[in-house]
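Newbie here. three chains, one complex. Structure please?
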Amino acid sequence: MELLVFVLASAMVLGGAVGVIVNRNPVHAALSLVLTLFGVAVQFVALEAHFLAAVEVIVYAGAIVVLFLFVIMLLGVDKAENLEIEPFPIQRWLAAIVGLGVTGMLIASIVRGRKILAEGEPLPASGDDNIRALARNLFSDHVFAFEFTSVLLIVAVAGTVLLTRKTPASEKAAEAAAEAARSSKAKS
Amino acid sequence: MLDVIWLIPAFPLAGFLTILLFGRRLGDPVAGFLAAGAVLGSFVVSVGAYFDLLSLDEHDREHIETLFSWVPVSSLQVDMAFLADPLSLTMCLFVTGIAFLIHLFAIGYMHGDPKFSKFFLYLNLFVLSMTLLILGENLLVTFLGWEGVGTCSYFLISFWHHKDSAATAGKKAFVTNRIGDWGFMLAMFIGFEAVGSVSYGALNGAAEGGALSQNTATAIAALLFVGAVGKSAQFPLYLWLPDAMEGPTPVSALIHAATMVTAGVFLMTRMNPMLAAAAPEVSTVIAYVGAFTALFAATIAVAQTDIKKVLAYSTVSQLGYMFLAVGSGAFVAAIFHMVTHAFFKALMFLGSGSVIHGMHHEQDMRKMGALRKFMPITAFTFLIGWLAIAGVPPFAGFWSKDEILLFALVKSPVLYVIGLITAVLTAFYMTRQIIMVFFGEAKWTSHANAEEAAEGDEAHASTAHGEFKPHESPGIMLVPLVVLAGLSAVGGIIQLPSFGFIPDNWQHKLESWLHPVVEAGEAHITESGAYDNKELLALLAIACALIGIGVAVAIYAKHLAKPVEPEILADGWKYDSTVSAFMGGPGRKAFDAVAWFDKTVVDGAVNGVGKLVSGGAGELRKTQTGNVRNYAGIVGVGVVALLVWFVIGRGVL
Amino acid sequence: MMLAAIVPTTTYYLILAAVLFGIGATGLLVRRNPLVMFMCVELMLNAVNLTFVAFATRFGNIDGQTAVFFVMVVAAAEVVVGLGIIISILRRRPGATADDLAELRG
């Protein structure tokens, strides 16, 4: 039973991942990403991390991917890019080396170490359910980091607002750019 | 006076600096008298030091005056120090004395020359260098003087530098000397390496005490001889001396007769313990080189027509005699001959200068003749010099030459025969010169006018179409001639041999004076067969001189036979032209090859490194594409490399 | 069936995460659209989250899950800022890809 769940969830994960990198239209890629995130959430449930599975769906799939789609629509970069051409020939080679190398090495070390993984004894269960245990750990051992993340979030928001402000100069530049885009479109 | 022996070089140095700063203002003739005065000061100090040294006991006659530490570099400690011992003071006396006389002569000779003060500037610089050379307590101070006299020789030979031949002759002298200097420097390096010092005391002490291996002593002695060959114009490096006659006559007299060229002989005598410690072949080679040079130069002198060139080749020949003496272990005889030669050769050069001056700068002997009527004093003094060099007793040259021949016979009969033949030739060519210049018919009337007119010489334009008469030189030029003639006449007195009729306390004065300096190297011939027959040998030498004189008189004065002056002798056995052809042809190609190597390989290597770096940088620049994806890719490759190292290298796998 | 008896051990999850990470890395290097590149980064982050949780479950240590919690928070903040940057760049140059932003070339 668990095996079936694992295989189905893995299929969702990997299928979505391949979809992200293969889809030419960024909107399609975003939707593939959602599929992957769902798959990962299912894996979390299988691994008894229920809270995280929920957070995964709510924050990642629900907020982050939506944000992605907002920006895609706002900027109008939904045009498909041509994956056939590659300006830097070396790039494909680098990608191959990195992809295969990283994956290969990681799998090799995992496979090698599987016996060690199988041997050790797990820590005794705390008896609480997942969310309670997580909360206990978070607010006692890692409360300092928790407070910092709140600061981080505020800084990120403030920073982004500042970054994306429309100043008169950038207004003019945006106008000029739009003008240029329009005239080149008119010529062609 | 011994403590202030540093005044001997200091006076000419002061003269040099004064003329350097104020020469043009002092002008003709004050600059000349100033320079002569400086040299006179040196002479006076030399005399004083001589008497001081005489008052010391025979074996203590050595005084070292250290001025300052010159080169204090860890293991190489060289001081600017002067060594006053019998040898250096003998040299100082006759060098400064003759230099003073020549300065006086030059005041008259160079009168009217636009570069009058510059001449005396260089002359003082020369005397400074020569005294440094002689008084040096170590090889480095001597080398400083050695190089200094070479430089002054270059300046003075090419004094009239607008004349191409003079400029070339100066360069030739300098370059040829350099070859000898290379030998000197190598000898210094080997000496320092063997003994740890370059001072004469250390080197000679090590040689005498047996601390040097025979190979080291041989190397040092042979290399110093190479230096001497260059400086003292022996074969094969003699070819600069005849060309050096391009310089003014006082220069030829001072530098190329009396002083600089004797520096080589001085050096060998100073290092006589080294020669004694070296392999005997070195002395033999020196003797044969000297004898060969003497004969070789004498044959060339027979066919020369320029009055100064005859004297130049004669100098080379007499220097050959001095080296023959050095090689035969006769150091005292070599110094003796050096002194007497200085007297009569300087006399004859000055005399020829007087002749040239009186003949309005004519130097070809074929156009002279019967000058004794017009220049009586010059002629008279010149004749005394002639008798001295020909070896006619009681003039100085006879005594010194005879002593050399005696030692040569003990060394080897071959050397003796060569020496005798050279003596005959010497008497012959000198008599020839005398007759052509001072006797016979006057041959100057037709040509001189045409030459002077061709040169556009305004001063003689009046006489060009009228009467051309040679005149006697002014007094200031005649006084040195007279003094030197007197010295040539009686100079032999310093080293009279032990003939029966000479009282004992008049004999061998120079030998007893120089004895402590040369006892290591001096050959002992008192037991030999030659020594027993020395009176007979002396008579033989006189006979040779008379034969030479007689034959010359027969050919040139009485016209009993035709003169034999083959062209090959006049060309100097074509040695000079051969060297020039070689240097210009194959030599030039070799030098070009070396220059090519330097430009292409050495410079190429250095530039190549630069190009390599720049090229490499250019290639590396291509990695900076500015493209984020490339950078990300490279970062990824790095991660893979790390993983590979951990997984495979560290054995996690 | 025999298959039903196989229980996916920690190793299976780890390998899945490794493959997911590799796919994300490859995609990052191949795609030119900045937003798609960002999504590939999210893939890699998820792979890491999966690894953390797998280990947390295996060893019974809840710290792994806390780590995932923080990763998610930081990823959210990072997405916000990153998208802000992309917006401000693409406003000036509409239609630019990662290749066009090459001012730092040497």
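Moderator note: The first helix of chain C runs from residue 2 to 5. The mean pLDDT of chain C is 88. Thread marked as resolved.
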